[in-house]
Design a protein that fits this description.
Structural class: alpha+beta
Helix content: 40-55%
Order of helices and strands: HEEEHEEHHHEEEEHHHH
Number of helices: 9
Distance between the termini: 58 Å
Radius of gyration: 20 Å
Shape: globular
Length: 327
């Protein structure tokens, strides 16, 4: 009988290990296991000599050009001696693999392994170092343009609300709040003194889940899957928002935020206009990711995304953050 069509699949780790070993000329016994299934699927590749991460992009998630631009950015950062997980070339000096999955052709890329571990509750000294590293990245991505998405109000706010409306009805308090705050941010966006705001390529997802810290406190950043064009301070705004979400003790949150901002400004001074708009941009990026969860429901969020989840996310995080900043 014919195989029934599928929306998304998890490719066999055993076969993936064999495929990567052959394509990249890895010697000895190669072990592969699935680290995370999401919008992209992440595999840990271990050989006797080294460890790697192999990312498999879900169908219709990124075009080949978008992936090439991400890899171009990473190669540029690596050449400038910035600690990032970088792409590895195969035996034919290629970087992007084409995988014939049941749902259609998917792309895969092998990356260097970021040494160290993830730390959820980061001490102040590490926040300082993360701020410094983010600033160093921004020094290199300032005024750079990629053939990738540009983060505008349409992308960050308007499209996400359309996706959100498929799961949360208009007559709920949470949806009314999201429409109000999105309209406010859209209006304020037009008032920003853009000549005082640095633009270039933002990581857009730089927080503890996408960096590893080794025993010496050295930090390596990975997962540039959402990198795109726009205000660099989107990264600052998102980091602040994530810290607010994770560190519920306001005094500790403020202290760690101060360390992070000091680390950043030990490299680059943050313009006052950027500081002013950080609360607005933080909510915008969170709205974008909420919309992404809804839009990619079939890939990874089906296990948890529901109306109660969305209401909690909005009321306990976004609305609470907005209230803290009188928005």
């Amino acid at each position: 009988m014919n195989h029934f069509p599928v929306i998304t699949s998890v490719l066999s780790p055993q076969q993936m290990g064999q495929f990567v070993a052959m394509q990249y000329g890895l010697k000895g016994m190669v072990v592969c296991r699935l680290l995370k299934a999401g919008i992209s699927h992440t595999y840990l590749i271990e050989s006797p000599e080294d460890r790697f991460v192999f990312r498999v992009y879900c169908l219709h998630w990124r075009t080949k050009t978008e992936i090439e631009e991400e890899l171009r950015l990473l190669s540029m950062l690596k050449e400038n001696k910035i600690a990032v997980s970088y792409p590895i070339a195969d035996e034919n000096n290629g970087y992007i693999q084409l995988l014939n999955a049941p749902e259609g052709d998917r792309y895969g890329v092998l990356f260097s392994y970021a040494p160290g571990d993830k730390i959820q509750f980061v001490p102040e000294e590490i926040h300082f170092r993360i701020g410094r590293l983010m600033a160093t990245i921004h020094q290199k991505t300032y005024q750079v343009q990629l053939q990738r998405i540009t983060y505008t109000p349409e992308v960050l706010l308007h499209c996400p609300l359309k996706h959100l409306s498929l799961f949360l009805s208009d007559d709920t308090d949470e949806m009314r709040f999201m429409k109000r705050i999105s309209a406010l941010i859209t209006t304020e966006w037009e008032k920003i003194a853009w000549q005082e705001v640095r633009t270039g390529v933002a990581h857009l997802d730089l927080w503890f889940d996408n960096l590893n810290v080794d025993a010496g406190g050295n930090i390596t950043v990975f997962d540039f899957d959402f990198c795109g064009n726009g205000p660099l301070c989107l990264d600052l705004a998102y980091y602040r928002m994530q810290l607010f979400n994770i560190e519920r003790d306001q005094e500790k949150c403020d202290s760690k935020l101060s360390a992070f901002m000091s680390g950043y400004e030990s490299v680059i001074r943050i313009p006052e206009e950027e500081k002013r708009i950080l609360p607005l941009l933080g909510i915008a990026v969170y709205t974008f990711y909420l919309g992404t969860q809804c839009a990619r429901f079939n890939d990874w969020s089906g296990a948890f995304l529901s109306e109660p989840y969305l209401k909690r996310f909005i009321s306990q995080i976004i609305e609470r953050y907005a209230g803290l900043h009188d928005l």
